[in-house]
């Protein structure tokens, strides 16, 4: 029967497509590369099974109507071609990605590499591949000796389906390591606080370069103008030297070592995918949106689940949607399927000039180029639109990149007299900070116009310092509704304290898994260490920054640091270890540096921090321990 042949084709073509993408991901810098081989196989076969269901559904959706009309109209070849369309489409997509990966790996040229003319060159390549694939399958279908007629080929399809079902069943029974539905729904149904929460953050800003903190250039004139309304923290530090780990710690309220989200390809997994600030706020009726950068920060890319309603121009699935159900039981598989969908849809839409596919690494490091210069403006405009449409309390996380470096961006430069020709220009950096201040003023003006300013908790912050510094103080500024808290605080603070403080102010119970503490507690102990992580050694590969081998025992972790008072200790975990120490320049706190523990106690504390979070520190143990 022709129908049996076409089903076999759809099954085998589905596996071919998934297998080629799976092979690419497990051999490259990706989340799959860090999984055990058994988990990798589980992702392969369950992904294949899901794609088979979708493929056969569309196959029958086309096959039955066409078979009926073709019998009446005598269009036999058209009928045959349409029957081969679904498997031909899958084969052509796999071949297209294979060619694109090859040209990008060896020549640095890809379908998404240029937004002007290059994109159009790849479109006819894909069309030709699709036509050739369908033509090949038509020949196999019409030729009595074709491979589709061979029993062995049908046996392969049956074998793959059986394996898919087995992996599906086993993983559903023993593979789930996330909270139950009851646990996820256990938050009180008390009335939601009528206070909006807005995280309006920038990338890579030292507080010492802001006039609000005493810098001699007027880089934050708007913040200076409302200084009397603000609560300003002078000694605030990140928990991670790179954006992924820093944003992960901010949204989760957990140390990066706890979630092991330090640098890509790290993602949230298991219970950590569900334990985070936006998820709690969503349970209390908040509408949540993220305006950031794909791959490094985007919540979907980081597998942060059931937290956001909107993320970077996409409306996300609700908790009750079928995709959310799949994500609940098979998070690794769903993440992989999302990734392969984004890879092909991004390229096709880019080639059709429907939506530009950006390189996130270039977007972060060179926002002043033609491709990326307007993206911060798009984020701010998107935020404003979200605020205007939000129904009820909202939470928004905004991450702006104009101040990231090594190239900076400003809509109206004041300090730089010419275009940036060298990296890390201080004049252009100051202009980028001034632009950030303008964005803050613009958003505050909208909040005031809409009558939302006095019931919005506004937080100003940065993920790390200039040139990814971790020992420099970062800006941390709160504007509480009705100016409830004001002034300056000099005690040490860290990024994981922010969600703790937000929930406390809103009157929402703070879960035990949050590791920070309230920023409003003036009795804080400056001798309690702040732990900071940085990535392992990395290199540029075809326009991407990659860690050579994110494997056990330390995965993407390279340096673990601890801040006590005005000193910072560093331990490199991947090389011959020596505990180094540096003074924190510009520290304004009143802590007593004579009470800082001796190096051996600091060293033990660093190891304990890692051991408690499941790291194997045997290689770091001193002799005799």
Taking strands numbered 1, 2, ... along the chain, how are they ordered across the largest sheet?
Answer: 5-4-3-6-1-7-8-2-9
Q: Which band does the percent of strand residues land in?
A: 5-15%
Tell me the CATH architecture of the largest domain.
3-Layer(aba) Sandwich
Low-confidence segments, ≥5 residues, pLDDT <50?
Answer: 180-189
**Overall tally of structural domains:** 3
Which sheet architecture does the biggest sheet show? 9 strands, mixed
Mean pLDDT, as a whole number? 84
CATH class of the largest domain: Alpha Beta
CA-atom Rg in angstroms: 27 Å
Number of helices: 18
Based on Cα principal axes, name the global outline. Answer: globular
Fill in the CATH topology of the largest domain. Answer: Alkaline Phosphatase, subunit A
The structural class is: alpha/beta
What fraction, in percent, of the residue positions are helical? 40-55%
Spatial separation of the terminal alpha carbons: 71 Å
Number of DSSP strand runs: 15
Give the full name of the CATH homologous superfamily of the largest domain. Alkaline Phosphatase, subunit A
Question: How would you characterize this protein structure?
Answer:
With 625 residues, this protein is of the alpha/beta class. It has 3 domains: 2-174, no CATH class; 194-318 and 358-524, Alkaline Phosphatase, subunit A (3-Layer(aba) Sandwich), CATH 3.40.720.10; 534-620, no CATH class. 43% of the residues lie in helices and 13% in strands. The protein has 18 helices and 15 strands. The chain has helices at 2-26, 37-73, 76-83, 85-107, 118-142, 151-174, 181-184, 221-225, 243-252, 256-259, 277-283, 322-329, 331-351, 360-365, 375-389, 426-449, 497-506, 599-612, and strands spanning 196-202, 231-237, 287-291, 310-311, 314-315, 394-400, 456-462, 474-479, 487-494, 530-535, 538-541, 544-547, 557-564, 567-572, 580-583. The strands form 3 sheets. It has a 9-stranded mixed β-sheet, with helices on both faces. A 4-stranded antiparallel β-sheet has the order 10-13-14-15, covered by helices on one side. Strands 11-12 form a two-stranded antiparallel sheet. β14 and β15 (580-583) form a beta hairpin. α1 packs antiparallel against α2 (37-73). The chain is globular and about 85 Å long. The model is unreliable at 180-189 (pLDDT under 50).
């Amino acid at each position: 029967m022709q129908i049996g042949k076409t089903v076999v084709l759809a099954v085998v073509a589905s596996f071919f497509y998934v297998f080629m993408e799976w092979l690419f991901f497990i051999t490259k810098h990706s989340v799959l590369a860090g999984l055990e081989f058994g988990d990798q196989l589980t992702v392969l076969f369950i992904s294949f099974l899901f794609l088979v269901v979708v493929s056969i559904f569309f196959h029958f959706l086309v096959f039955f109507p066409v078979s009926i009309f073709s019998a009446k109209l005598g269009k036999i070849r058209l009928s045959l071609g349409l029957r081969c369309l679904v498997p031909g489409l899958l084969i052509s997509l796999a071949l297209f990605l294979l060619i694109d990966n090859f040209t990008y790996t060896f020549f640095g040229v890809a379908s998404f590499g240029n937004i002007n003319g290059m994109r159009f060159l790849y479109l006819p390549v894909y069309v030709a591949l699709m036509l050739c694939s369908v033509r090949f399958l038509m020949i196999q279908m019409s030729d009595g000796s074709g491979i589709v007629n061979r029993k062995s080929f049908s046996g392969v399809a049956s074998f793959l389906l059986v394996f898919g079902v087995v992996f599906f069943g086993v993983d559903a029974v023993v593979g789930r390591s996330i909270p139950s539905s009851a646990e996820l729904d256990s938050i009180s149904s008390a009335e939601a606080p009528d206070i909006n929460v807005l995280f309006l953050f920038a990338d890579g800003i030292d507080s010492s370069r802001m006039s609000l903190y005493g810098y001699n250039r007027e880089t934050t004139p708007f913040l200076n103008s409302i200084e009397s309304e603000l609560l300003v923290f002078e000694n605030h530090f990140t928990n991670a030297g790179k954006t992924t780990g820093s944003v992960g710690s901010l949204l989760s309220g957990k140390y990066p070592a706890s979630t092991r989200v330090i640098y890509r390809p790290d993602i949230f997994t298991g219970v950590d995918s569900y334990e985070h600030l936006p998820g709690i706020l969503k349970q209390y009726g908040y509408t949540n949106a993220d305006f950031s950068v794909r791959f490094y920060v985007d919540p979907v890319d980081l597998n942060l689940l059931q937290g956001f309603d909107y993320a970077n121009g996409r409306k996300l699935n609700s908790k009750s949607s079928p995709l959310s159900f799949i994500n609940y039981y098979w998070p690794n598989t769903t993440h992989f399927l999302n990734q392969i969908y984004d890879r092909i849809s991004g390229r096709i839409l880019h080639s059709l000039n429907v939506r530009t596919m950006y390189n996130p690494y270039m977007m972060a490091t060179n926002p002043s180029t033609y491709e990326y210069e307007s993206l911060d403006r798009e984020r701010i405009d998107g935020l404003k639109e979200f605020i205007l449409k939000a129904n009820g309390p909202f939470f928004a996380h905004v991450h702006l990149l104009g101040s990231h470096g090594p190239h900076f961006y400003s809509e109206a430069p004041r300090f730089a007299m010419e275009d940036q020709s060298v990296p890390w220009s201080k004049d252009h950096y100051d202009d980028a900070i001034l632009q950030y201040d303008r964005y803050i003023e613009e958003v505050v003006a909208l909040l005031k116009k809409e009558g939302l300013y006095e019931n919005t908790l506004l937080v100003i912050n940065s993920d790390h310092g200039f040139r990814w510094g971790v020992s420099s103080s970062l800006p941390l500024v709160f504007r509480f509704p009705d100016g409830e808290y004001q002034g300056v605080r000099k005690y040490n603070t860290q990024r994981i304290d922010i969600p703790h403080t937000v929930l406390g102010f809103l009157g929402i119970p703070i879960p035990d898994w949050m590791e920070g503490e309230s920023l409003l507690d003036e009795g804080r102990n400056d001798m309690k260490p702040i732990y900071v992580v940085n990535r392992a050694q990395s290199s540029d590969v075809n326009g991407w920054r990659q860690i050579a081998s994110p494997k056990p025992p330390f995965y993407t972790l390279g340096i673990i640091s601890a801040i006590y008072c005005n000193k910072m200790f560093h331990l490199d975990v991947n090389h011959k270890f020596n505990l180094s120490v540096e003074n924190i320049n510009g520290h304004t706190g009143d802590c007593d540096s004579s009470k800082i523990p001796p190096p051996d106690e600091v060293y033990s504390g660093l190891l304990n921090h890692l051991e408690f979070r499941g790291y194997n520190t045997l290689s770091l143990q001193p002799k005799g321990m």
